[in-house]
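Practice problem 4.
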């Protein structure tokens, strides 16, 4: 597809040109289209994005990202969202077509959009994929508006095996799923519960290692920590995986059943869920 080459180029450019969101004190007044885009805070701590006093967007988080030139049109990008963990802000796009009034559109209203990757002609929004997920890649331009540019599906790294699991390179439970052998074992073990358990590992503080070398960690559902928290463990030497998810009862759901778990891994799960 003809969008792949510019998308790859945009990704490289994005890494070299971090957006203004990383600034300690992002601006709250931005000259734009002969007027001013402003960000003001209300007594309720909401922020309001406005152009010459006319409200464009409002939420708990409103941050200026950057202004770009796209096909000869100046375009301002803002991050707007609820705040909170594992659910990023949406991107509000602001532009003023020649001979027309100011316009806006929002990308990622449900749970945020990834940082915009910009080429000369388009803005691309490449989704963050949870293990096993499939999602649309979107593009936006002043001429065409927001469109579906293609579709991405999560796959583990080709040719990766149990012996490639390196604790030093695993910072989040999702990193485990990038291993082909682990991914295949997890899909087989969890069956139709795969996506539920993956979601329950989304918000995590990282992984730990038991004395025998078993990797384990826990997590929770974005904006719902404490309800249905998840647990994962993997023994690379034995080539076995373990998953659990709290269900509101005294005993969590577990794959395989808890009576098949080694005592060391069961103790790690109990500790994780009690913290």
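Answer key:
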């Amino acid at each position: 597809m003809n969008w792949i080459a510019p998308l790859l180029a945009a990704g490289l450019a994005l890494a070299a040109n971090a957006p203004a969101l990383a600034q300690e004190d992002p601006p709250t007044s931005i000259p734009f289209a002969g007027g001013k885009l402003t960000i003001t805070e209300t007594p309720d701590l909401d922020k309001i994005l406005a152009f010459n006093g006319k409200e464009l967007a409002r939420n708990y988080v409103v941050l200026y990202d950057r202004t770009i030139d796209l096909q000869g049109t100046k375009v301002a990008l803002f991050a707007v969202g609820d705040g909170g963990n594992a659910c990023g802000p949406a991107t509000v796009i602001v532009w003023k077509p020649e001979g027309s009034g100011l316009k806006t559109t929002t990308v990622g209203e449900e749970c945020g959009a990834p940082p915009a990757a910009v080429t000369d002609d388009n803005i691309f929004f490449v989704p963050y994929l949870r293990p096993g997920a499939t999602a649309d890649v979107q593009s936006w331009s002043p001429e065409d508006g927001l469109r579906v540019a293609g579709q991405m599906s999560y796959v583990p790294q080709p040719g990766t095996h149990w012996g490639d699991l390196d604790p030093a390179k695993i910072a989040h439970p999702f990193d485990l799923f990038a291993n082909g052998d682990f991914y295949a074992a997890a899909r087989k073990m969890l069956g139709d519960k795969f996506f539920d358990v993956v979601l329950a590992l989304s918000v995590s503080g990282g992984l730990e290692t038991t004395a025998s070398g078993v990797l384990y960690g826990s997590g929770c559902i974005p904006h719902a920590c404490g309800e249905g928290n998840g647990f994962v463990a993997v023994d690379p030497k034995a080539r076995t995986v373990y998953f659990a998810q709290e269900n509101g009862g005294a005993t969590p759901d577990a794959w395989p059943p808890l009576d098949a778990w080694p005592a060391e891994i069961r103790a790690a799960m109990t500790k994780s869920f009690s913290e």
